[in-house]
Amino acid sequence: MRSAVFITGLCLALLGCASIQNAPVNQPGSSAGLADKVRLNYDVGAEEDADLVGLSFSGGGTRAAAFSFGVLTEMQHTPVRGASASMLDRLDFISGVSGGAVTAAYYGLRKRAALDDFRERFLMRNAEEGLQTDLTLGTIGRALAGGINDSQGFPRWLDANLFNGATFADLHETERPRVWINASDIYNRTPFIFSATTFNAMCSDLAKYPLANAVAASAAVPVAFAPVVIQTFARECSDPLPAWIVKARDDRHAQPILSSYAKAINRYHDGTMPYIKLLDGGLVDNYGLSGFTIARLSAETPYGPLTPQQAVKLRRALFLVVDAKTGVSGNWINSVEGPSGVDLVKAAADTAIDASVGASFTAFDGTMGDWQSALIKWRCGLSAAERARFGARPGWNCHDLKFFIGRVGFDQLDPARAAELETVPTRFRLPPEQVDSVISAGRDALRANPTFRAFAGSL
Predict the structure, then answer these.
(1) Which of 89, 267, 392, 436 could make an SS bond with 387 (beta carbons 3.0 to 4.6 A apart)?
(2) pLDDT on residue 132
(3) Please, which residues have CB within 8 angstroms of residue 438's CB and are 6 or more apart in sequence?
(4) What is the DSSP string of 133-162?
(5) For residues 94 and 103, what is the distance between their CA atoms, to the nearest angstrom?
(6) Dihedral sign, Cα of residue 381, residue 385, residue 386, residue 392
(7) What confidence score (pLDDT) does residue 107 get?
(8) CB contact at 8 A, 445 and 410
(9) Average pLDDT per run of 10 along the chain, which is 459 residues long?
(10) pLDDT at 151
(11) How many CB atoms are closer than 10 A to CB 13?
């Protein structure tokens, strides 16, 4: 009894000493453009835009950032047959989670110039400096209060060393690639996409939101970090929700991912959620595919989220998941006891993340397959006048459309190399030799990937 009282008292004392700083930094804004959907950035101005290319970078700390960096580097060195540009010039959008979000945001900000200095500015650095990363008697109070590290330390480091005050306005959404940063809304249990759709619904200004804070939210591992907080400004919104959100919210037969997203957007808008709490995007979607899936499921036409002109011109589309997840680990399977403590928290998080990736990829693959079929049916049903109005060229073939959906992962390399890569820890601090090994793996895995090779050969 005395020990229980002592432990309770100790916990209360530790909680009393803990102080978590996680004040929201987003600003109120206009609700103009509230009807905008989650859109793909796809330009039909050039001949090569008959192709649509999207990448999704998974979570996994510096390991994921390095692997996705290797993929981008290999794309830069992959020529397009019959063209002077490389495959990197065809990139239309990137979605990023956690470590993958760092690469996605920095490439979106600096484009090709990012490949020149990202290794030195981030991958070779210790992004954990100034952070407390271990659960000890000295940090347990903060862990119990919401997170060992508050929501200011990591964004401050990212901004000082990588983003230099950049906001979403600096991503220039009219230029490709469009970038989506993904976190997890832990109340609605849905993906939180840093997009105009989300911020317009809460009457907040996405353009002024710091990139460093969005990336930190995407990488906010539970317990290690306190949730990143976003404030809603519902009283400043006078526009009603657009019809497509209301329809998905009220349709009992809507796809679960679309229904949950619409209900979350509704809560941001109607004032029932003054504050949104965000943690690591991998908790609900470690592949960052939800934005793509929602963009299609929310469309009210066979060609949406593309325009009719884009849908007529499109011939080839590539969607690749860059997957840097670790393999199974832990020695507690050798005894009746365990896991416990930190191992239990890690095992629970890994279980949730691995379960989510399988479901999100299956949903995405099915949605894209259905979309390809719907597009072909719509294209082949166009009248001669409609084909001319939408820009179909002489000899245009309505069936000439193919989607390539695939995944690039460690497990696609030889078994010994894959096993070694899967042991690289999920940290934001890695030895230089491990960083270079993972970068090289990204290049080699993309070069050998059958989906990527088939797409490149079809252009």
Answers:
(1) 392
(2) 60
(3) 63, 66, 67, 70, 324, 421, 424, 430
(4) -S--TTTHHHHHHT-SB-SSHHHHHHIIII
(5) 10
(6) positive
(7) 97
(8) yes
(9) 43 47 83 49 50 94 97 94 82 94 96 96 90 58 57 85 94 80 95 91 93 94 83 84 89 91 94 93 90 88 92 95 81 77 72 74 90 97 95 94 96 94 91 97 96 92
(10) 63
(11) 11
Phi, psi of 278 (to 5 degrees): -115, 140
User: Does a cis peptide bond (omega within 30 degrees of 0) precede residue 227?
Assistant: no
| pLDDT of the residue at 139 | 55
CA 178 to chain centre: 12
Cβ neighbours for 22, distance < 8 A, ≥ 6 positions apart: 146, 150, 151, 152, 226, 227, 228, 229
| CA-to-CA separations, 63 to 77, 146, 326, 436, in angstroms, rounded | 21, 26, 9, 10
Q: Whole-angstrom Cα distance, residue 180 to residue 97?
A: 9
Q: Which of 427, 454, 420, 367 is nearest to 64 (CA)?
A: 427
* Tokens found for residue 56: 């999704």
Phi then psi for residue 132, to 5 deg, are -105, 120
> 228-231 and 402-409: which strand pairing?
unpaired
The closest of 440, 455, 350 to 73, measured between CA atoms, is 440
Buried b vs exposed e over 297-327: b needs ≥16 C-beta within 10 Å?
bbbeebbbbbebebbbbbebbbbbbbbbbbe
